[in-house]
Amino acid sequence: MLGKKLVTAQKRGETRALCLGLGMVACSMMMYFFIGITIVPFYTKSVWTTETVCKVLKANIKDKVFCPNSEGSEDEEIFPYPCLQVWVNLTASGQEVMLYQTEDTLERNPKCSYVPDKLENSKEVKARIETIASNFKKYQTFPCYYDPGGTQTNVILSRLYPSKGLLFAFLWPTLMFTGGCLIIVLVKISQYVSVLSAWQ
């Protein structure tokens, strides 16, 4: 009687472990799919892939401009902010080009090097932009990214999705997939050993 209860408990434990392993594998597949349709297209679309050194030539704050209204957004999302323009000397080619914060900055407003997030306090926005401008004047040389193909003549300060960030995004689903597969393999080995012991 006790042996039957132990066998039943063992089978329940194996079933639960098997379900856990399959669930982890399924979740990791969903995470792979989500990353594949969100992060990977932005990574492959970016042409600023080569890192070089940029030297600041001038960093000026122009008159206030309006944040362009993106497609499908409401009018209330438009807000004025000082336009910071940073021109740098590209070490790779020696050209004088304009610097943007990220790829998204160029799409939101190609006239400005930095586009702030919408903030209710305009003084805070102005102070942040002035701080960024002073930092550029203080640190004249810094790494930046340019397009080796020449389709984009400007440069960006940092990529939205660098190679390390993409690898880090794939790390967690990979660990989950590996753990799920390991649980399934261990359950199958346990079942095989149990059947082999019973047969003997």
From TrEMBL:
TM spans (from-to): 20-43, 166-187
GO terms of biological process kind: detection of calcium ion
One Pfam assignment: CaKB
Coiled-coil region: none
Entries under PROSITE patterns matching the protein: PROKAR_LIPOPROTEIN (PS51257)
UniProt GO cellular component terms: voltage-gated potassium channel complex
Membrane topology value: Multi-pass membrane protein
Keywords: Glycoprotein, Ion channel, Ion transport, Membrane, Transmembrane, Transmembrane helix, Transport
Subcellular location field: Membrane
Annotated family: Belongs to the KCNMB (TC 8.A.14.1) family. KCNMB1 subfamily.
Protein's name in the database: KCMB1 protein
